[in-house]
Design brief:
single chain, 485 residues, alpha+beta, seven-stranded mixed sheet, 12 helices, 20 strands
Length: 485
């Protein structure tokens, strides 16, 4: 399948061969693998590459070798379809592998693979390697990834002479009904078809890659599905099965812990003086009547990612961290700058540091957000906040009404920074932005106060009740109680 053919079989037969190749090469499926498909635009051939042997799992270094050989000869405009989860079983279950082609969830993907003269099929790629595919492509293409959708791509004009890395994130989810997964995969296939159609209209040669961040199915769940469906399964000892499950869970937790990326670290000499970490860094610009977003996280954090920090500096009273990017929202040069300072306050008798400003510098223009009013912490601590934004419960405010920052939005998710008194490469104790009296605490206090007031009023009314000192005798005359008494 990795070599050009002079006489093509029918589309259904070729797709069946493709699914069979996936199944054979991935005999004994494992829950730590994801498939990777690579193909080029019609009319462009790549040198044939040797496929991995049966049962072999492609690691990060081997995957980098495959990509390097493909990009050295093939087009350097790369379209990456990155799905949240995917496994080989998604193709065998929903790809029409048993002759029911009308039920296939991948007609556009099938057509793209059949039209390409030299597709590359890697059935078993370790998911840590697939997680690093963006960083590998970024290093080989020497360009930053652009996260896009088909509508944005239709407005973009690509140049065959300059490389581009276009990333399309695709969802995946399985509900109570398995058909929900098929519907999502069909929707993803429609997105792939739209993107490839737009690339064809622009007449720009491209290299397309389809893979995922994590496997969608585990071996235990697959064996359970086989048992429910009445399929045959291998008998195995219960004790050995439990041991394998425990070992698999232990390995998964180790890999998850290893997948937590390190913070951005700026050193002055051999000493670390600034640390920055965030789960998400994103910026948006207002163009026309809509906001255009760009995610800076993959270019800042992750395994194998080394952000450019030239222009950063630090001393005992001031610190500046400069993150340099390229091709952000159509700006070839883009900088995200964090300016911090610390000083001694007599009232509290201690030193505090503040995030004075967050600046966006692009093509000679500077947009400045003021953060000193809300973002501060003791000088010995780091500062952490679940959400630091300029638009929703803003902690960052444009410097003035005429500042270009009014056309921008910045959003930092799970944000932590420290610019002074850094020991080693770890953050100091974090001063969290959440105050002690949160809205929930205030609601609880107000509800408790209201209940105490109601109880006090009730007790007061009960204490005002008086017992009658005269009683009516049913056998005697009625008691006459004067109104004046």
């Amino acid at each position: 399948m990795a070599s050009a053919r002079t006489a093509r079989p029918s589309r259904s037969a070729a797709w069946a061969v493709f699914l069979g190749l996936l199944s054979v090469l991935n005999a004994g499926s494992c829950d730590e693998q994801v498939p990777l498909l690579l193909w080029t635009s019609e009319g462009i051939s790549l040198p044939s590459q040797s496929l991995p042997t049966v049962g072999h799992i492609v690691g990060q270094q081997q995957l980098a070798s495959y990509l390097e050989k493909a990009l050295n000869v093939g087009p350097r405009n790369v379209v990456l379809f990155l799905q949240d989860k995917m496994s080989i079983e998604d193709f065998t279950m929903y790809g029409g592998a048993f002759g029911n082609k009308q039920d296939s969830a991948f007609p556009n993907l099938e057509g793209a693979l059949m039209s390409s003269s030299s597709p590359l099929v890697l059935p078993a790629v370790s998911w840590p390697a697939s997680n690093a595919v963006i960083g590998q492509l970024q290093d080989q293409l020497e360009t930053s990834p652009l996260y896009m959708d088909p509508e944005t791509l239709s407005q973009l004009r690509l140049n065959a002479s300059s490389p581009a890395l276009l990333v399309f994130r695709l969802p995946y989810g399985i509900g109570a009904d398995l058909m929900s997964a098929k519907e999502i995969l069909s929707g993803n296939d429609e997105v792939i078809g739209q993107v490839l159609s737009i690339m064809k209209t622009q007449s720009v040669p491209y290299t397309a890659i389809y893979t995922a961040l994590r496997p969608s199915r585990e071996a235990a769940s697959l064996s359970m599905e086989a048992g429910v469906g009445g399929g045959r399964s291998l008998l195995q000892a219960r004790g050995g099965y439990r041991e394998r499950e425990r070992e698999r869970e232990r390995q998964r937790r180790i890999k998850e812990r290893a997948g937590i990326y390190a913070p951005v670290e700026f050193k002055e000499g051999e000493d670390t003086c600034i640390l920055l970490w965030a789960k998400g860094l994103s910026v948006s610009i207002l163009r026309g009547s809509r906001w255009e977003d760009h995610d800076l996280t993959p270019s800042t954090f992750g395994e194998g990612v080394s952000p450019k920090l030239h222009g950063s500096s630090c001393d005992k009273t001031k610190a500046k961290l400069v993150l340099n990017y390229e091709n952000v929202l159509s700006h070839r040069s883009f900088k995200l700058i964090f300016a911090l300072s610390q000083r001694h306050y007599k009232v509290s008798a201690r030193r505090w540091f503040t995030l004075d400003a967050v600046e966006l510098e692009y093509d000679g223009t500077k947009a400045t957000f003021n953060g000193s009013r809300s973002i501060y912490a003791p000088a010995e601590y780091s500062y952490r906040c679940e959400s630091v934004t300029s638009f929703r419960w803003p902690l960052l405010i444009p410097r003035s009404s005429k500042d270009p920052a009014n056309q921008w939005r910045v959003s930092f998710e799970d944000f932590q920074i420290q610019g002074f008194n850094v020991t080693g490469s770890e953050f100091s104790y974090a001063s969290d932005c959440a105050g002690f009296f949160s809205p929930g605490i205030w609601m609880g206090l107000m509800t408790s106060l209201l209940m105490v007031l109601v109880l006090t009023y009730g007790l007061h009314m009960i204490m005002q009740l008086r017992t009658m000192d005269r009683f009516d005798d049913p056998k005697g005359p009625a008691i006459s109680v004067p109104q004046t008494e």
